[in-house]
């Protein structure tokens, strides 16, 4: 990574939900590598969270982990405010924490529906609204969606698709409202990505990889690179956009 990239987020403060593993952890590391101080949330694994904090510090940046359940919207809002207070500012929000429910929509109970919406839709909404109130003009709000927001490639993903499609409307509405302040709001739609929840060597991975134009799963760092671009001044004229980072799965 050249010196331009390593410094383009210098002096910025970023907050990432679900930042201890997968795309979230890769995003935390990438933002720190480009000069940002980074705070993030995680749900369970203290050890993984500590490793990511140390990775941030290894780049010479400030890092902090908050253990919360993103189903608790009040906790999400409190954490956004806590980050802004502790770091003295907030420039970048990345809504990454998410559930991946599978199964028939017809057979899905309302409790499962409500829990999925709480984590996948209500938490990003609450975090974005709270962040916008504390964010400097010219800030960035980036939400991790999914390429299945654009299509339903197989049965059993209906509830997940519903939740990720909702984020497109949220992003468009916020982009229109926050544009006068120079705050951009975008959603990144990954495709098959090699994480512990969806490993590239998993039982159905080969068939999904074959549906991409590139014939492979993404590394989480490749998705994080797209997020970092949107977080930077280089993407100041991109807002309200749905960016596919899915290796051509949606072609």
TrEMBL record:
InterPro entries: NAD(P)-bd_dom_sf, SDR_fam
Span of the signal peptide: none
Keywords: Oxidoreductase
GO molecular function: oxidoreductase activity
Pfam families assigned to the protein according to its UniProt record, in alphabetical order: adh_short_C2 (PF13561)
Family classification: Belongs to the short-chain dehydrogenases/reductases (SDR) family.
Name the UniProt record assigns to this protein: SDR family oxidoreductase
Provenance organism: Phytoactinopolyspora halotolerans
